[in-house]
Input
Amino acid sequence: MTQIHDFELEVHRHSDGSIDFDHYRARATALRGAALRDAAALTPTFRFIMILAVTITGVVLVANAPAPVVEAACLHCTRSLVPVDEPPAATHIASFPRTSRAE
Output
């Protein structure tokens, strides 16, 4: 059978036997001050990491965004627009007379 041994914490006490709360209060204040100093030292690093993460995310989102489809309209008709990637058939454009565009 395993026995659990009680252990005693070393408690700071006054000479009359009461617990010295001032000791613990001073210790907690010192630890809080150290934590605030550490946090203040890490703030610029955290800010840099967040700016870097947002920038990388923005670049990835822009790089993966689909390119907008630019459509070219036929100058002589109102038929549906044709994407620039797919030039219109030669018979469609060739059927219209060519005009000079030197304006």
